[in-house]
Design brief:
Elements lengths: L2 E2 H11 L3 E6 L12 E4 L8 E6 L5 E6 L4 E5 L4 E6 L10 E7 L5 E7 L17 E5 L5 E5 L6 E6 L5 E6 L3 E6 L5 E7 L5 E6 L5 E5 L3 E6 L2 E7 L4 E6 L3 E6 L5 E6 L4 E6 L7 E3 L5 E4 L8 E5 L5 E6 L6 E6 L5 E5 L4 E6 L2 E6 L8 E5 L2 E5 L15 E4 L5 E3 L10 E2 L2 E8 L4 E10 L2 E7 L10 E4 L5 E4 L5 E4 L5 E5 L6 E7 L2 E6 L4 E5 L1 H4 L4 E2 L3 E5 L5 E4 L5 E3 L7 E5 L8 E4 L4 H4 L2 H10 L2 H8 L17 E6 L15 E5 L8 E6 L2 E2 L12
Parallel strand pairs: 43-47
Antiparallel strand pairs: 1-53, 2-55, 3-51, 4-5, 5-6, 6-7, 8-9, 9-10, 10-11, 12-13, 13-14, 14-15, 16-17, 17-18, 18-19, 20-21, 21-22, 22-23, 24-25, 25-26, 26-27, 28-29, 29-30, 30-31, 32-33, 33-34, 34-35, 36-37, 37-38, 38-39, 40-41, 41-42, 42-43, 44-45, 45-46, 46-48, 48-49, 49-50, 51-52, 53-54, ...
Helix pairs in contact: 4-5
Length: 678
């Protein structure tokens, strides 16, 4: 397996006494796997954090997110030591819903919406439905498990590491035998709706929960016992004596059972209890938070699950929880996707990036406005505008110019919302009225955003609505979908329209500018004309569909190119700064803003500077694979370490330099590594 050089260097530098390799020289094409995709790396997650796992040696924390990344953090330093990347695509393709680490820390199992989905039901060969198995030490993709016919929502290894269980939207739990290279051992059928949680008991019996409101106990591959609740059940945790489950947003309860599925206690929570975890000693139960008041809670098991402490640093949804070996609680979420380490309600450490959720946007003909402050109690979608990006001077300042926002009135038409959908959310149904009379309605479902978070009319009377999971769509006044806007990956919180331009802001921490003229061209899928990200340190970057960008002095540190290796191979990430000479083009971005077309912008820019369409794949650097030692976590005896690498040029351009660095400094004698043919 070949690995991208920057990721290789980062891991090796941390695991092998600071040794790292760097190659310099022209780069080659990425190969047949696909074009590079420009994405934001803010230093932390920028989408909902779905899962947390702690390694058995208590050294690493692994986090999985809707932003399509898995990050590995050093628990002691709170620093990222690696990313594990896979195949991604537009929209939801590549979102990670679940991770599980084998007890010996060898295998990392990954599930989610992991690739393309044809739209056809009951197909086990869909990329989106497969489970990825990685070698955790090297980050190499070992195997793809095929069997589910819908996305995988949860994963867990048995305590002895012999079995892997997966729960899926196809209503099944599947068991995989690890020793036989993850061969499928059994498919457990009995749920009537999506399976969202699965766990092993100590004796390797299986328990699972789902949106059919059932908790099921499985024994020898058969349904032994079930419990029917009054709400959907989405979360499950197993301790030494007890198991706990919780469910939908309207249900503020945790149900505690013994291991024979006898109900022991119902805990009434002040918030909707989301992700659940028992401490390693079984003495504490940790619950995340899914509704106000936002507070993660630890319950004392010995005191019959009495509340022991509450943590209130998070300001929004917390789905992912875990414990360290010393019973330190770890919770991840909130508006800015923060990870906190805490005990007795007090923060002990923090991990977070430089991005902020975008709660408000506005447009004027010369600039983009946005705000990252959410004020409880303000009128829906009326949070303050704080910053403005000038589209002529490419400077960021205060939002002191009047800006257009989204309007819910058009002539005698109006928009409002009401309760509905699978979860009875207050804004799941968008109501389209004329002269006060309802003409049509649009119900958001689980597959298209759950809710109408923000909505309004364009100047032509079309309806734009943003919801969960990055769903943003245009509808006519009959309630029929006209087009989808593809690009956001998290909740769309804010919209603004000025003429033929639409601006959107999201919990994924980006602003996206869209050309509404593409609607009149009959396009069903519309991609951003311009993307914008601003860090909390004042640095910013704006980029086009093909990756041309302009940025503040250090803004391009926040973006890079994700390069898919194909469904069966690990992906790679290259910082955009490595391609500054080719892709840093403020002139193209300015022409793009004026013309509304990247092709036209390139032509305009070519009048004053030689400009050709850049194939980003053709300027990617060579690939490098560590051959010896085969494991990145390698103990070195003495003061010498032998490294053997496979270096693969990707074009006709030669490699001009190879350097060996120790702790960031050149060695006394840099030795050229022999290139081997693939």
């Amino acid at each position: 397996m070949r690995r991208e050089i920057n990721r290789f260097c980062g891991v090796v530098a941390l695991f092998i006494l600071g040794v790292s390799l760097f190659l310099a020289g022209p780069a080659g094409p990425a190969g047949a796997a696909g074009q590079p995709l420009l994405s934001v790396d803010s230093g932390g997650h920028k989408g909902i954090i779905r899962d947390l796992v702690v390694s058995s040696d208590n050294r690493y924390l692994i986090s999985a997110s809707d932003d399509k990344t898995i990050r590995v953090w050093d628990i002691k330093t709170r620093k990222e030591v690696a990313k594990i990347l896979g195949q991604i695509g537009p929209g939801s393709e590549g979102k990670v819903y679940a991770v599980a680490l084998s007890p010996d820390d060898r295998w990392l199992a990954v599930g989610g919406y992991l690739g393309r989905f044809s739209g056809k039901k009951a197909r086990a060969d869909e990329e989106a439905h497969k489970v990825r198995i990685y070698d955790f030490s090297s980050g190499k993709l070992h195997r793809l498990l095929k069997g589910h016919t819908n996305v995988v929502n949860d994963l867990v290894f048995s305590a002895d590491g012999s079995l892997l269980a997966s729960g899926s939207g196809d209503k099944t739990v599947k068991l995989w035998r690890v020793a036989d290279d993850f061969s499928l051992e059994a498919s457990l059928e009995g749920h009537q709706d999506d399976v969202y949680g699965v766990r092993f008991l100590a004796d390797k019996r299986v328990v699972s929960v789902g949106d059919d409101e059932q908790l099921i106990l499985w024994e020898d591959g058969r349904l032994k016992k079930s419990y029917k609740h009054s709400h959907d059940l989405d979360y499950i945790a197993v301790g030494k004596e007890w198991l706990a489950v919780s469910g939908a947003q309207s249900d503020k309860q945790i149900l505690v059972f013994d291991h024979e599925l006898r109900l022991h206690k119902t805990i009434n929570s002040p918030t909707n209890p989301t992700g659940l975890s028992f401490s390693p000693d079984g003495g504490q139960l940790l619950a995340g938070t899914g509704s106000a008041p936002w507070g993660a809670i630890v319950y004392d098991v010995a005191a019959d699950f009495r509340e022991q402490s509450r943590f209130s640093k998070h300001d929004n949804l917390v789905m992912a929880t875990a414990f360290l070996a010393d019973n330190t609680a770890v919770t991840a979420g909130g508006n800015n996707k923060d990870v906190y380490f805490w005990k007795n309600g007090k923060a002990l450490g923090h991990i977070g990036g430089s991005g902020r959720a975008v709660w408000a946007v506005g447009l004027d003909r010369g600039g983009l406005h946005w705000g990252t402050t959410w004020k409880q109690g303000v009128k829906k979608h009326a949070n303050p505008l704080e910053h403005r990006f000038d589209l002529s001077s490419f400077t960021v300042g205060d939002s002191d110019i009047a800006a257009q926002r989204m309007k819910t009135l058009y002539q005698d038409w109006s928009l409002s919302h009401r309760k509905g959908g699978a979860y009875a959310f207050s804004d799941a149904t968008l109501v389209i009225s004329r002269a006060g009379q309802e003409e049509a309605s649009i119900i958001r479902k689980t597959f298209n955003g759950y809710r109408h978070r923000v909505y309004g009319f364009t100047g032509e009377g079309l309806i734009i609505s943003g919801g969960g999971n990055g769903h943003l769509a245009a509808y006519n006044r009959k309630g029929e979908e006209v087009a989808q806007f593809i690009g956001h990956t998290s909740e769309v919180w804010s919209l603004a329209v000025e003429g033929d331009r639409l601006l959107s802001g999201s919990a994924d921490q980006t602003l996206k500018l869209w050309d509404l003229g593409e609607l009149s061209q009959g396009k069903k899928k519309i991609y951003p004309l311009l993307n914008f990200f601003a860090g909390s340190d004042g640095e910013w970057v704006a980029w086009s569909r093909s990756g041309y960008y302009t940025a503040s002095a250090q803004g391009d540190k926040y973006v890079g190119f994700h390069v898919n290796g194909g469904p069966g191979k690990a992906a790679r990430f290259y910082p955009a700064s490595r391609f500054q000479s080719s892709l840093y083009r403020p002139d193209i971005i300015q022409a793009l803003i004026r013309s509304g077309s990247e092709e036209e912008a390139i032509r305009i820019a070519g009048r004053s500077r030689r400009t050709e369409v850049v194939d980003t794949a053709s300027i990617l650097p060579p690939l490098i694979e560590l051959i010896k030692p085969s494991q990145l976590r390698h103990q070195v005896q003495g003061d010498r370490l032998e490294l053997q690498c496979l270096i693969t040029p990707q074009s006709k351009h030669p490699i001009t330099e190879i350097q060996l660095l120790v702790n960031g400094r050149p060695t006394a004698e840099s030795r050229a590594l022999k290139r081997r043919k693939t």
